[in-house]
Amino acid sequence: MCLSCSYDGAIFADACLQGLNGVPDVIECSFVQSNITELPFFASKQNTWELSSNVRHLSAGETRETGVEEVLGLGPLSEYEKQGLQALIPELKSSIEKGIKFAKTKAKTFADNG
């Protein structure tokens, strides 16, 4: 495993532990389903909910059930950044479609063999 992946894992674990300890408004970057771009998924900063016992009892379908209270968006982009984002969208879209197909295939395989 690369050092940067280990660091990212440690940051993620720390954010989870903060939530479990009741720290509100933990802000981290995550790849989640959102509408901040034309893509169905995108990595951006999220405000995660506090993982306390009262949150675990939310009814299914509420947005807090996902663990993401708010997708904070991209913020202001320079013209250069906007052009770069637009140039990346075809590759990102293709990768997302491959990932969704892979996940559906694995879920079906697991359900068939589970």
Lateral strand order in the biggest sheet: 1-2-3
CATH class of the largest domain: Alpha Beta
The profile of the biggest β sheet is: 3 strands, antiparallel
Number of strands: 3
Number of helices: 2
Structural class: alpha+beta
Helix content: 40-55%
The helix-strand sequence is: HEEEH
What's the average pLDDT? 77
Count of structural domains: 2
Oligomer: single chain
Question: What's the shape?
Answer: globular
Please give the radius of gyration in angstroms: 17 Å
- CATH homologous superfamily identity of the largest domain: Lactate dehydrogenase/glycoside hydrolase, family 4, C-terminal
Taking the alpha carbons of the first and last residues, their distance comes to: 29 Å
What is the CATH-assigned architecture of the largest domain? Answer: Alpha-Beta Complex
Beta-sheet strand percentage? 15-25%
Poorly predicted ranges: 51-65
The name of the CATH topology of the largest domain is: L-2-Hydroxyisocaproate Dehydrogenase, Chain A, domain 2
